[in-house]
Amino acid sequence: MPLYLFSSPAAAKLATGPHASLHRRRQFLFRVPHRPSRRAPLLTSAAERPAGRTMATADTGASTVTDSRLRGVKQALISLSDKTDLANLGNGLQRLGFSIISTGGTASSLEASGVNVTKVEEITQFPEMLDGRVKTLHPSIHGGILARRDQEHHLKALKEHGIGTFDVVVVNLYPFYDKVTSGAISFEDGIENIDIGGPTLIRAAAKNHKDVLVVVDHKDYPALLEYLEGKQDDPDFRRTLAWKAFQHVASYDSAISEWLWKQSNKDSFPPSFTVPLTMKSTLRYGENPHQKAAFYGDRSLSLVNAGGIATAIQHHGKEMSYNNYLDADAAWNCVSEFESPTCVVVKHTNPCGVASRHDILEAYRLAVRADPVSAFGGIVAFNTTVDEDLAREIREFRRPTDGETRMFYEIVVAPGYTAEGLEVLKGKSKTLRILEAKRRRSGKGTLLSLRQVGGGWLAQEPDDVTPEDVAFTNVSERAPDARELSDAKFACLCVKHVKSNAIVIAKNSCMLGMGSGQPNRLESLRIAFRKAGEEAKGAALASDAFFPFAWNDAVEEACQRGVAVIAEPGGSIRDQDAVECCNKYGVALVFTGVRHFRH
What we know:
Elements: H1 9-16, H2 20-26, H3 62-70, E1 75-79, H4 86-95, E2 99-102, H5 104-112, E3 117-119, H6 120-124, H7 139-146, H8 152-161, E4 168-171, H9 176-180, H10 187-192, H11 197-207, E5 213-215, H12 221-229, H13 235-264, E6 277-283, E7 293-298, E8 313-316, H14 322-335, E9 342-347, E10 350-356, H15 360-369, H16 372-375, E11 378-382, H17 388-396, E12 409-414, H18 419-426, E13 433-436, E14 449-453, E15 456-460, E16 473-474, H19 482-495, E17 503-506, E18 511-515, H20 521-532, E19 540-543, H21 554-560, E20 565-568, H22 575-585, E21 588-591
């Protein structure tokens, strides 16, 4: 019994010739016992059949189907998982004179909509098998898609084998992404939701887009029908559909790859991976007006339900800009770190005011007063619902520097708004962007933070370390009391969100001053003290990294200005100098062992 079914003498010759091994590899789909009756559909009429051979299928509709396919009837192949707008598509194609070939549930849906359908198995004369794993993987389908109409030998081969051409292929894929993100799913169920035939059809049609229109998105059905109705020949339209098809399959494959990696590997860093990005909007410009920009959503499985600004809902205001997204992201990431009701004010991605209070109105006032000059035109973020009282306070609060000018903000972001609160806040300004965002989920062991450099990308785990994860080790003669230690923890939580070199001074769960982005730590410290003023006495000071020098430098200057406790990672070869300096001034010094650089 032969292992391969040869559909022609030419195929048989190929299988035994010098390219036999290549041919056999490509014929793996057809390892079936030789059944002469399977050749019937490949013949166009009874007169062409070999004498003396009778076929069980000779009097079925198979030859009629083949005859119509070879007479140049326009054909569309439709196989869909998502059947949105299928009836409109099917009826539209039928109205334009297309013969429609379809599979399984798609065929049933089309028939229910009054569309005449030829099922794929009538073309292939081979039934669906292996629980639907094999439906369209057949030369009678792929030959009709891949054949180039401008190549005579391609058309001759189709005629020889009784294969008609396809002009339109409309396919979307098993909902793998939705399945594996919908909750607990077994490995076996995940595997069964990996589409094989669909991507193969899409890639084949996209490759031959000069002759075949390929559609993977129901939103493109109207454009397709309009194109066909106008009998246009627009190469750009075809190429755009082909690009979209390949991108669709690439995104689909990236989800499968990510899922399979996490099923079998604990390492956060795969040897290679693809990030599936989808444009959400074009932006007016980038960081500066001369730079073009766009905003993309990340469809990585690891980011499903992870929260963040990218999935925020905008309730009001002017469209978001490139810088708005950066600043809103910084504000939201910072405020999401706090458990108590907290307000964070950000300017140019740096928190310039942070305060936690049971009374969120008081927290808001304190956060603004920390640096009212910087807060003007900034972003305000809350980790609690904005109600009518808070909204009114945001709308009416006057600039502390003059007591008259209403505070102006670019963005307000919160996890929710009451109906009354939202209505009041909308009255502050037509341009005020009001965002509702989900709290960021911790990314330990699951998320990667990516950053582009010239010619490559840096990947790291996010800095999700909080004071609760850290041992605050006292290394000085005087230990901090409970209030001072609480202030130190609050300052450390703030300083991890400030650009390096970073210094934060805080007291009573309120940032008093911060210094950021300076090339040396001493200058950042002086900026922080200038903002904190006299309130720095008895406060806590946190540094994002160790102090390289103590005497006549940052540590001694901090002690002389009256802070009660200093929190820093430690690790300098001059740590003992810092200890001795704090002991001299009676200041508590705690080492955290955790650095929080932010470049």
